Known about the structure:
Helix content: over 70%
Strand content: under 5%
Largest sheet: none
Amino acid sequence: MKRILATLTTNRFRAAVAGAFITAVIQSSSVTTVLLVGFISAGLLTLKQSLGIIIGANVGTTITAQIIAFKVTHYALLMIAIGFILSFFIKRKSVIGYGRMLLGLGLVFLGMNLMSEATAPLRSYQPFIDSMVRLDNRFLALLVGAVFTAVIQSSSAFTGIVIVLAGQGFLSLEAGIALVFGANIGTCVTALLATIGKQREAVQAAVAHVLINILGVLLWIGWIENFADLVRWVSPVAEVTEALSEHRRRILEVPRQIANAHTVFNVCNTLVFIWFTGPLAKLIERLLPTGPREESIQPQFLDPVYLDTPDIALQRVRLEEARICAQLNRTLRIAFRMVAHGTEDELRAVARMDDDLDLLYRAVLNYLGQLAERDLTTKQSESLHDLMAVANYLENAGDTIENNVVRIGLHRPETAHTYPGAGLACMQPLLDRVTLSLELLETCLNTNDRNAARKIISAKRSVQKLSFEAHDYAVHTLLNKDTEHVASGEEHQKVFRMITDLVENLKRIHYFIRRAARHLIETDLREKYKKTSHE
Length: 535
């Protein structure tokens, strides 16, 4: 998913097209922005990448208004019937998805049709007519549109209502345009609500949505009459006949004109703001600086809201496991520093660092367990099992540090700190190789870079070679009679055993890292095997 999003957002224009297309399919710019907030929280997108999608989403959301203006509401029952059949009588998941989409659209259009019929008697209800006349005040109409859309959290639905009211002759084009402008501001509330409890980058994306839409409205609010003339010029005109009164003509023309106004407004704003994504990103980052992130032992990415979107949930598990890798790397380096020179309290503190790893590990397993209860595809199930295996191997590596490395430090010989090989001197290259593999594993989890995983797997011989060198160095120092630092007799053997035990535990930790890396490319290997078996 990260690779797909990276491809779609390689430049601002492609990102805008992607945003328009995605929003046209799901028919809600609010939902698109909420998804972006999730992607940014998951580390899949940056603020600058998301701006192009946000700008394009405003164009995509106009599709619903165009469909309603084309009077497709007459086919609502047919769409509901076809959607129901595809949803409940067809077994293929892809077809079921299309059926549900068609069913949802049909219900929306049926609701619009019923609303149109229900508002017909209001044509002769004077209090309602008076309230509609007040909407000719552009600022009042702007406020009504913003508040109403914020309440129902859908600019598409509110624009549909405006078109229905215009179709009954209640609204002028100018009033309809002002209401649509307000809807473009009110729709931002959904994204702002979605950022509650999220990272600062996600808040920046929601604020960007608000800023772009408000600036777009400010560009046009003083020119509504001129804008209305432009819309009339690009819109089809009803043929004038003796039987066609001015009121009837307005009923026929204004709904289409409002839909066109919505489209022209957002297309023009896109053409303006698409050139300023860089400066906008810098402005928002200055208004809402991220600041240094505080490390927390609590899970950061395992948000239950994404469990119903398995691909996103799996990516967030990868990010949480990357945090485990980073914590494991720190713990390993500190542990080896404390083994030779740390006090008992310092070594106990290292052991407690593994408790943080255990907390994250249990959180990951619990999250994956909840995800496993969802309806997953075969590929998603395989990825889930692979990520569960990765979590287990990382937990095993952490337990090795707590139960073995720390124990060695607690029982080290009294002369160990004077022994040249007892520090990191003989094991430093091996320790560096193991921590490098942990960094590569973290990179693979964060970026889906399977080449990093392959580098870990291919490091097996290098780890063996460095292990032999550390072992030989310890033997050489132990047998060197000229050394002035090592006690004789039994102390020699204890120190030597300490070195060999540490080397073996480093090899064991790297084994767990290597097994985790293998699981991260396991899905690719299975897919490759399936392809070759069919040839």
